[in-house]
């Protein structure tokens, strides 16, 4: 048997033997136009996710409204860490402020802090990735907060990759809301 025929066969055999999940990274998506803000630095606190969303296994909504995870597919990074980093990256890109996740890595204090508490974070049975909750943004001069409910459509035929892209777009949209209304 030639090497080109052996490798695909070996891959198939190994795929059937392993119990390890397939890991899906969340890609970076375009951040959009710049948003002017009144601060030069922002600390993003660890994003609070619901229990079902704070595990590596990807959660799917079922027809009856229940939530199901699969040991066969998982996020490539810890969800809380990944969402916090995504939020900080997009905020930094769209605002031009220095943005970092907690703990603040610089000697001087950040001019603003952002705290996000997520109530819903799920790939819906309706083909939309939904994220909702409340955000808080505070500076020495003012404190602001706001509720958010974001739903990004995805094509179920696209599988978990489509869900990952929708998740990235939802976090991007949340960052844009916080930049425009909170900073």
Give the gist of this structure.
The protein is an alpha/beta fold. It has helices at about 5-15, 80-95, 160-180, and strands spanning about 20-25, 40-45, 55-60, 65-75, 100, 110-125, 130-140, 145-155. It starts with a helix and ends with a helix.
Question: Could you describe the 3D structure shown?
Answer:
The protein is α/β, with parallel strands linked by helices and 183 residues long. The protein has a single domain (21-182), classed as ABC-type transport auxiliary lipoprotein component (Rossmann fold). Helices cover 31% and strands 33% of the residues. The strands form 2 sheets. Strands 5-2-6-7-8 form a 5-stranded mixed β-sheet, covered by helices on one side. Strands 1-4-3 form a 3-stranded mixed β-sheet, covered by helices on one side. α2 packs across α3. The longest helix has 24 residues, at 159-182. It is elongated and about 50 Å long.
